[in-house]
Specification:
The complex is a heterodimer of chains A (373) and B (362). In chain A, 77% of the residues lie in helices and 0% in strands. Chain A is an all-alpha fold and 373 residues long. Chain A is elongated. The chains are: A mainly alpha (373), B alpha/beta (362).
C-alpha cells in the first residue's frame, strides 16, 4: 500500500468511528436524528449538540455534578474524535509527498510549518482587524451591550412611568446612553474635530475612551497569549508525529482509538508544560491578566457612570459601605475581646451555627461588574 | 516502504467507538439516577460548636470510649482555597475518620464561602482573629492551656504564622503539604510560584474584589490541561458502569469544583508576602504589627509532605526544618502527589496512624 492509500484508510477509520458514535446515540435516544452519511468536521459538532440535548432531557433532575461529568464524557469523546481528525488530516497532507519520495521528517516539518501559520493567522487577523477603528468600535459596542444587557432588561420590566422619568421620553435611559456613546465615538474616532466636549458628555467620553484603549490592550494581550498557545499546540503535533513514526520504525503501530487519544494527551501536556515553564509564558500570561483587569476597571467606571444616572448604587459605593462595616465589626470584636480578657476569659461565647455550612450548597455567585463569575 | 504508524481498521474503529458509546451511555444513565447523598463529601459525623461570621467550628464525633480519647484535642486548619471535605471524601478515604478511629479528638474549621462583603478580610483577621478564637473556644471547653494544631496546605502556612505568634497556646504542631519557602523548587519549579510571581494581586483585587474560586480552579487545571480536562474523563468512561468506582470519581469531582471565592485582601497579602516576597522564611512577615518569627516555634513539629507534589514541591515544605526553633522536628514523606495524600490507598492506610501516633507520643 502507498502512503496515500494508507492515509485514505485512516480517513475511513475516522468516518466509521463518527458513524458509529452517531449510531450509538441514535439507537439510545428517541430524539436523535438519523445518522448522517456525509462525514466532515461539522458532523462532530452536530453530534456533540445532539448528545448534549439528549442528555439535557435525560438528566433534568440529576445532581449538578452528575450533569457536569456527563457533559465531560461527551466532551472527552468529541476531543478524541477531534484528535483523530487532526491525525488524519496530517497524514493526508503528508502522504502524497512521501509517496513522491520525500522523507517523513521533511514532509512533517513542512506540514508543521503550514499548521503553525494557520494557527497563528486567526488571532493575528483578529487583532489586525481591530486596528480598523470603525470595526474596533463596533466590537467594543457589542461587548458593552453584553455588559449593559441585564440593566436594560431590568429597566424594561419597570413601570413605564419610572423608565419614562429616567429617560424623559418613555424609553430606557440606556438607549439614550447608547446615543451618547455614538456621540462619543463621533468625537473620538469618527471625526477630525479636536474641540473638547462639555459636561456630562465630556466625562463619559473620557471614561469610554479609557475603556476602549484598555479593551484594545486586552485584545493585544489575548493575541500574544494565543500565539504562545499556538506555539505549544504545534509542539504537540510535532511530538505526536515523531512518536508515531518512531513506533512505526519499531514495529509498534497504534492499534486503537484510545491509544491514539492517549498519545495525544500525553504529548500535549508535555508540550504545554515546556511552554508553561518559560519566563516568556509567565510574562505574557501576567500581561494578559493585567490588561484584562485594567479593562474591567475601565468598564466598571463606564457602568458606574450609567448607574449613577439611574440612581442605582454602584460597586464602588458598595465596596465603601462593606469596608466601613468591616472596620466597625473588627473594632467591636477587639473591644469584646478586651472586655473578655478584663473578666478573665479568653474564649468568645460559643455560638453554634444556625445551619451546618458543610451541608449547604455553594451559594450562586452574584453577578457583579467586578466579578468574573 | 514503512508501515503506517496507525494500524486501526475502519471496522475496529467502528467497534471501538460503539463500545465507548455503550459504556458512556450506560455511565450517563447511572449518573442520572444518583442522589445528592450518593455524592456528598465531608459526611463524617460532627457537631457545630462555634460560629463566627461565615466560619463554623466543628467537633467530629468521637468513636472511642471517653477514657480512650486522646486528652489533647487537635484543630485542623484547612486552606482558604477549596474546601476541607478533601480530608473526608468518603468512608474509606478519610483522613479525619482515620484520626477519629485512632482516638483523636478532632476539631475542624470550615471557612464557609466568602461573599463580596468579605472582600476586606485580611490574613490578620483569619489568623489572629478566626483561628485564635477557635483555639480559645477549644481550650476553654477542655480546660487546657494548649491544644494540638494540624495545618493543611495554605492552612499549614497560616498555622505556622499562628503558632509563631501564639506559641503558648499550641502543644504540638503538624503541617501537611504546606508551602514554607515559596521560592524553593527542587528539580522541577512549581508552576504556581512561577506564575504567581508575575501577577499583580493588587490590581486583580481592585478589579475583581474577591478572587473567584472558578478562576483559581482554572489555574489548577491549566497545570495539566489535557490530563485534567480530557483524559481523566476518557479514562473514567471505562469504569462508568461500575457504580462504586464512578462514585469515588464523582466525590472527587464534587470536591474539586466546590471552590469558594477568596477574600480579596487576604489573597493579595498571601500572594505578595509569601509567593512574591517569600517573607515567611526571611522573618519579615508581619501581622497586625507583630513579626512572624518561625524561631518562636519551639514545640514539637511534624512535617508531612508529598514526594511527588506538583503544587507544593517537597523542598518548599522541607525548608521548615532550617527555620523553626523546634528541637523535636520530624518529617513524614509520603510517595504520592498533593491530592494523593487524600486518595491514595497507601496514604489513606498510613496517614492517620502516623499523625495520631506522633501526637500520642508527645
Amino acid at each position: 500500500m502507498t502512503w496515500t492509500e494508507q492515509a485514505n484508510n485512516l480517513m475511513n477509520v475516522w468516518s466509521e468511528a463518527q458513524k458509529s458514535m452517531w449510531q450509538g446515540w441514535y439507537d439510545a435516544m428517541q430524539n436523535a436524528s438519523t445518522p448522517p452519511t456525509l462525514m466532515n468536521p461539522a458532523v462532530l459538532e452536530q453530534w456533540r449538540t445532539m448528545a448534549n440535548q439528549s442528555m439535557g432531557m435525560w438528566q433534568s433532575s440529576a445532581e449538578p455534578i452528575a450533569k457536569t461529568v456527563s457533559n465531560q464524557f461527551v466532551a472527552s469523546q468529541a476531543a478524541m474524535m477531534r484528535l483523530l481528525e487532526y491525525t488524519t488530516r496530517a497524514w493526508n497532507a503528508m502522504a502524497p509527498k512521501m509517496d513522491a519520495g520525500q522523507d517523513w521528517q521533511t514532509a512533517m516539518n513542512e506540514y508543521m510549518e503550514q499548521f503553525r501559520k494557520q494557527m497563528l493567522s486567526n488571532p493575528q487577523s483578529i487583532f489586525e482587524t481591530t486596528q480598523e477603528t470603525t470595526q474596533l468600535w463596533q466590537m467594543y459596542m457589542q461587548q458593552m451591550q453584553q455588559v449593559s444587557q441585564p440593566w436594560v432588561e431590568v429597566l424594561q420590566q419597570m413601570p413605564v412611568a419610572m423608565s419614562g422619568m429616567m429617560s424623559g421620553s418613555g424609553s430606557s435611559s440606556l438607549i439614550e446612553m447608547s446615543k451618547l456613546y455614538q456621540n462619543a465615538y463621533a468625537r473620538t474616532f469618527g471625526s477630525l474635530t479636536t474641540s473638547p466636549g462639555f459636561g456630562i458628555t465630556r466625562e463619559l467620553e473620557e471614561k469610554v475612551d479609557r475603556a476602549t484603549s484598555a479593551w484594545q490592550r486586552m485584545q493585544q494581550g489575548a493575541n500574544n497569549y494565543q500565539v504562545l498557545m499556538a506555539d505549544a499546540w504545534s509542539g504537540v503535533f510535532e511530538q505526536v508525529m515523531e512518536t508515531l513514526v518512531k513506533r512505526a520504525e519499531q514495529g509498534q503501530p497504534i492499534e486503537s482509538l484510545r491509544d491514539l487519544a492517549r498519545l495525544w494527551t500525553d504529548s500535549a501536556d508535555r508540550s504545554f508544560d515546556r511552554v508553561f515553564r518559560t519566563e516568556e509564558y509567565a510574562n505574557v500570561q501576567a500581561e494578559f491578566v493585567t490588561a484584562t483587569m485594567e479593562y474591567r476597571l475601565a468598564e466598571q467606571a463606564v457602568v458606574e457612570y450609567m448607574m449613577q444616572l439611574t440612581y442605582i448604587p454602584t460597586r464602588s459605593e458598595m465596596d465603601e459601605a462593606h469596608r466601613n462595616i468591616y472596620a466597625l465589626r473588627k473594632e467591636v470584636k477587639a473591644l469584646k475581646k478586651a472586655l473578655r480578657q478584663m473578666n478573665g476569659k479568653s474564649a468568645p461565647a460559643a455560638k453554634p451555627a444556625p445551619a451546618p455550612a458543610a451541608a449547604a450548597p455553594k451559594p450562586a455567585p452574584a453577578k457583579e461588574p467586578g466579578s468574573t463569575s | 516502504m514503512q508501515t503506517m504508524p496507525i494500524q486501526i481498521t475502519p471496522e475496529r474503529a467502528a467497534r471501538e467507538a460503539a463500545e465507548l458509546n455503550e459504556k458512556m451511555i450506560g455511565g450517563i444513565r447511572t449518573l442520572s439516577e444518583l442522589k445528592h447523598e450518593d455524592v456528598a463529601v465531608g459526611t463524617a459525623p460532627k457537631e457545630a460548636v462555634y460560629h463566627e461570621d461565615k466560619l463554623t467550628l466543628y467537633r467530629h464525633t468521637p468513636v472511642v470510649p471517653e477514657s480512650e480519647l486522646h486528652p489533647v484535642p487537635m484543630l485542623i486548619v484547612y486552606a482558604l482555597v477549596n474546601r476541607p471535605a478533601v480530608a473526608d471524601l468518603q468512608e474509606d478515604r478519610s483522613m479525619i475518620r482515620s484520626l477519629v478511629k485512632q482516638g483523636m479528638d478532632v476539631y475542624l474549621i470550615d471557612w464557609g464561602y466568602p461573599s463580596r462583603a468579605d472582600r476586606w478580610l485580611t490574613l490578620d483577621d483569619y489568623i489572629n482573629g478566626y483561628i485564635d478564637n477557635c483555639v480559645d473556644v477549644i481550650r476553654e471547653k477542655h480546660g487546657l492551656d494548649k491544644i494540638n494544631l494540624l495545618g493543611i496546605c495554605q492552612g499549614g502556612t497560616m498555622s505556622l504564622c499562628y503558632t509563631s505568634l501564639h506559641p503558648e497556646k499550641v502543644k504540638n504542631l503538624t503541617v501537611m503539604v504546606a508551602p514554607v519557602d515559596f521560592h524553593a523548587s527542587g528539580k522541577v519549579p512549581g508552576l504556581i510560584s512561577l506564575w504567581g510571581g508575575n501577577l499583580d494581586p493588587e490590581l486583580m483585587v481592585a478589579a475583581l474584589g474577591n478572587i473567584p474560586g472558578d478562576l483559581m480552579n482554572f489555574g489548577f487545571l491549566m497545570l495539566q490541561p489535557f490530563q485534567l480536562m480530557i483524559q481523566k474523563y476518557a479514562d473514567i468512561i471505562d469504569v462508568a458502569e461500575d457504580k462504586a468506582k464512578l462514585l469515588n470519581f464523582l466525590r472527587m469531582e464534587e470536591w474539586i469544583f466546590d471552590s469558594p471565592d477568596l477574600a480579596g485582601e487576604a489573597y493579595k497579602e498571601f500572594v505578595k508576602n509569601f509567593f512574591q516576597e517569600n517573607k515567611l522564611i526571611k522573618g519579615e512577615m508581619e501581622l497586625d504589627g507583630q513579626r512572624v518569627d518561625l524561631k518562636n516555634i519551639t514545640m514539637p513539629v511534624l512535617n508531612v509532605f508529598a514526594e511527588k507534589d506538583h503544587l507544593v514541591p517537597p523542598p518548599s515544605s522541607q525548608a521548615l526544618q532550617q527555620y523553626v526553633g523546634a528541637k523535636d522536628y520530624t518529617e513524614a514523606p509520603f510517595p504520592v502527589g498533593h491530592i494523593g495524600m487524600y486518595v491514595s490507598g497507601k496514604a489513606q492506610r498510613d496517614l492517620g496512624p502516623t499523625i495520631a501516633s506522633w501526637y500520642k507520643a508527645r
